[in-house]
Design a protein that fits this description.
Helix content: 25-40%
Strand content: 15-25%
Shape: globular
Radius of gyration: 31 Å
Number of strands: 20
Strand order of the largest sheet: 10-9-8-15-16-20-17
């Protein structure tokens, strides 16, 4: 069997139990949670996708084909029955919850436990065959801890995130993702420009369709892109090489290198939306900047002396010093003990990943000073990040993108008007939004620019049906809306 169908250590897998989907990473001795039951996934490493497993004490064991729970289909029976005289007052089941737990402790499980529950139900025989089948299926889902291992796909990941954390993916549904990929004509060996706030879900769907061939540039908000959902696709390193990142707050500095710019073509471009004070305060609390860390670390020292800050702006220099002259005589008298403490601190920091540290040292005049030390490893990471940013900038400013896709929680109109100049003529663009009002504004401004044709605003309507003998009908609970799409094709302005 192919290696792609086998589970390797470190791969992300989907645990499916009924309609519940859980994404987990297959690592040795790592516990996962499925419906309040904790266990490790060690036994399934090296096995195939599509197999079923039963949860035991803190572990799992493989379920053979003949032991899998069979939902059964009793619809062939001609006896229908009647449910009109059944009263649901929770007194039909003779076995209490404690008695069922006692049966499980005695070793009764599986089909025998379900048969025991059915026999002790006073109203089971009075129900019609469809209700009996539904009752047995419900009890199996509750008392049989069996789940199936599935390989993550775009549809499974979309269904899982939409059911559990739909606001994090801006209410993006799997049918809407399919519409975006189709209307954007996403294929291999293309050049795509994407702005998304879906934790990497739409990004992974596009990369999966491209197959590791082409170029994909993502414009992200914040200090670093959020790609939690992208890990679930299990892309290889070669596959990830097509992806480049560029911060959205620097998009106004982008200038097209070939063709006419937006100012030359007479197009009015609004500045991209700035981060609000509320979002800025949330980001600062979640990710405090380096200056805040330094100030908080030396807050107590500010009352004892004056601070002199000297920074070197020469490129490639790997040292920034912060000197602080202490005027307190008691602090100077204890300088020897402080220097000893600094030595221990420095050694401990070097052990912990060579992070930048702010340590006190003794100066030539005997006074205590503070010095910020930058290690080469961290400096190398900064240099690598700068090169990747410059490479992404060059790719964007070259233009000639084959598609522009936007699915963000920010106002789409400024982003569309700015990034449309990097799209090649006769190429499509797709804008997704949860509400239709922002797309109306974007539609109006694009029509005034006379640079797009065949513009449409559409809403995807999805209805899921239950297909069973003699009881086919729409599902009782369904998603109300899958969002709205603004699509069009850019043309060369004459």
């Amino acid at each position: 069997m192919s290696d792609t169908l086998k589970i390797k250590e470190g791969d992300y897998v989907i645990l499916k139990k009924g309609k519940n989907l859980v994404l987990a990473q297959a690592l040795c001795k790592r516990k996962v949670n499925l419906e309040r039951k904790y266990f490790v996934l060690d036994p399934l490493i090296g096995d195939n996708y599509g197999t079923s497993w039963e949860i035991t004490k803190r572990s799992i064991k493989k379920v053979e084909e003949d032991q899998k729970s069979d939902d059964g289909d009793t619809a062939e029976s001609t006896e229908v029955g009647d449910n009109r005289n059944i009263v649901d007052d929770n007194t039909a089941q003779k076995l209490s919850h404690d008695e069922i737990l006692a049966l499980k402790k005695d070793g009764m499980k599986g089909e025998k436990l379900i048969e025991q529950i059915v026999e002790n139900s006073a109203t089971f025989k009075e129900k019609n065959v469809y209700t009996q089948e539904k009752y047995i299926k419900k009890k199996k889902a509750k008392h049989l801890p069996i789940f199936t291992i599935l390989k993550p796909t775009t549809r499974l990941l979309c269904s899982m995130y939409h059911a559990k954390t739909s606001p994090k993916i801006v209410l993006l549904r799997y049918d809407t993702v399919a519409q975006i990929l189709a209307l954007g004509n996403v294929h291999a060996n293309m050049k795509a420009l994407v702005v998304e706030s879906c934790t990497g879900l739409l990004l992974g769907a596009i990369m999966d369709r491209m197959g590791g061939l082409g170029t994909l540039v993502q414009l992200f908000n914040g200090d670093a892109p959020t790609r939690t959902a992208l890990d679930g696709f299990n892309f290889s390193e070669e596959h990830m090489k097509v992806l480049h990142s560029f911060p959205l707050n620097q998009a106004n500095s982008l200038r097209i290198k070939t063709g006419k710019t937006s100012s030359e073509s007479g197009q009015t471009v609004e500045p991209l939306p700035a981060v609000t004070e509320k979002e800025k305060s949330c980001d600062d609390e979640a990710r405090p900047c380096k200056k805040q860390k330094i100030d908080s670390g030396s807050e107590n020292d500010n009352q004892q002396g004056a601070k002199t800050l000297s920074t070197s702006e020469t490129e490639g220099q790997s040292e920034v010093s912060i000197e602080q002259t202490c005027t307190n005589k008691d602090r100077i008298a204890d300088s020897n003990s402080d220097v000893a403490m600094a030595t221990d601190t420095k050694e401990s920091i070097q052990v912990s990943n060579n992070m930048d540290v702010d340590v006190p040292i003794e100066g030539d005049d005997g006074q205590l000073k503070r010095k910020w030390i930058v290690y080469p490893e961290r400096q190398a990471r900064r240099e690598k990040k700068r090169k990747e940013l410059d490479a992404a900038r060059c790719i964007i400013e070259e233009g000639n993108f084959d598609v522009l896709i936007i699915a963000s929680r920010f106002e789409p109109c400024p982003m569309v008007m700015k990034l449309l100049e990097f799209l090649s003529p006769s190429r499509p663009f797709v804008v997704y939004c949860q509400c239709i009002e922002p797309l109306y504004e974007c539609f109006s401004k694009l029509r005034e620019s006379r640079e797009v044709v065949n513009m449409k605003i559409t809403e995807t309507w999805l209805r899921e049906y239950q297909v069973l003998p003699a009881r086919t009908h729409p599902m009782n609970t369904m998603s109300g809306s899958g969002g709205y799409l603004l699509t069009g094709i850019k043309v060369a302005k004459t």
